[in-house]
Amino acid sequence: MKKNIIIVDGYSTGSLYAPKLASKGFQVHHVQSSEIIIDIFKPSFKEYDYASNFVFTGDIELLHSHINTLDPVAIIPGAESGVDLSEDLCIAFTLFANDASLLDCRKSKSLMNDELKVNGLLTAKQHCFTTIMTLDEWLKDLEELHWPVVLKPIDSVASDGLHICDSYDECITAAYSLLDRDNLLGKKNTSILAQSYLYGAQYIVNVVSREGKHCITDVWYTNRTRFEQTKQILEDRVLLSSSNAPVDQLSQYVIESLNSLGIHNGASHVEIMMTPEGPAMIEVNRRPMGGVMPVELFNTALGSNHVYRMVDVYLASNSECIQSEIDYQISEFIAIVDFTFQIGGEIQHTKGLTYAKTLPSFHSVINAPTIGSVVSKTEDTIAGQGVLCLSHRDQAQLMIDLQVIRQLKVNGELFGVINHE
Is 50 in contact with 44 (CB distance < 8 Å)? Predict the structure, then answer.
């Protein structure tokens, strides 16, 4: 049996693949999709977890030669920055590949929504533009019902570059700030996607797929606030029981979407808005859920986690490892609260955090700022920020505690921040 596996950009939660695969007896190799690792991913990259690290500089023949030498059993994307290269390689080497004819629809958020719409799935009204003039023409024809308008880069990560615009002038200003500028993935924004704003509750659906069979591994409600009328900030995420009302409807929409996009294999992290008309796509990410994933907490609540479930599917002999479309049970309810800041400055006290630690459902804190440290005002949703984790067998107790923490955040009392300017 071949024992080599390649991870492309093993950052963020993708860093969990290598140790898990090594424990299964595989030799894990790393392909770095570019010479520079962007700042938000640097802390999570553990080069010592890999037998080798190949830095891709654009020479595809050299990369193919390297992969031929390793003769891997699988090529797996770790973080968003490695998704496109990983998928190109999977198709070239016929390793857990997705439909090559729909590759462009998976790479472009604009083409993705176009393809979903063709297949009868609800999406936002949209336009992809490369010049301010074409955006101007689209905005002038936009009906009042479709405002606000969301602008975002075709390629980026988290909420980098996302703008929520209430007027024509705001749209044009935001477009000038985005077009032809570098995004967090190190790519130039040559195309910007404009979409009508989707009203409703936003959810995350995580999926693992093998040979066209899909399995929902976990579903989350995400609590977001609108920041300075232009952006959305992720405040917290709450794990939903598989029996909760929206899970079945969301799951069916996601599975239809994956099939429409030719996604047959791999992990998918899907963001959906539940609108009054039903589920509508925000975007499909072809990699595990990013950000902070406390393995112990997830494993206690779910018996596993998105990354480990994908490892099991990759290593199974065939797709029979997927028994049902919704396959998870909760033994404990969990919530993950992001540390967000209304102002930047120096941390003067952590009294609110200290109080939160006394709540019945408190579990742990990851990367909490300490007294004397300096924080920036939160303006986007970027992986790597600190979080507070809650866990409890009683869902009602968890939600009571979560409301307390939400109020502390609203009041600016979770941390005492002083702006010296």
Answer: no
**CA 113 to each of CA 106, 199, 261: distance values in angstroms, whole numbers, following the listed order:** 9, 17, 10
- Indicate the pairing of strand 362-366 with strand 387-392: antiparallel
* The pLDDT of residue 260: 98
Domains along the sequence of the chain with CATH: 4-97 (3.40.50.20), 125-196 (3.30.1490.20), 204-331 (3.30.470.20), 333-421 (3.90.1170.30)
The side-by-side arrangement of strands in the sheet containing 126-129 is 126-129, 192-196, 149-153, 163-165
Strands 201-210 and 278-285: unpaired
Element (H, E) at 138: helix 132-140
- Split at pLDDT 50, 70, 90, the class of 98 is very high
How many whole angstroms separate alpha carbon 331 and alpha carbon 293? 17
Cα–Cα distance measured from residue 78 to residue 57, given in angstroms and rounded to the nearest whole number: 18
Q: Is the pLDDT of residue 383 over 60?
A: no
pLDDT at residue 384, rounded to an integer: 44
pTM of the model: 0.92
Element (H, E) at 22: helix 17-23
Place of tokens 């063709």: 118
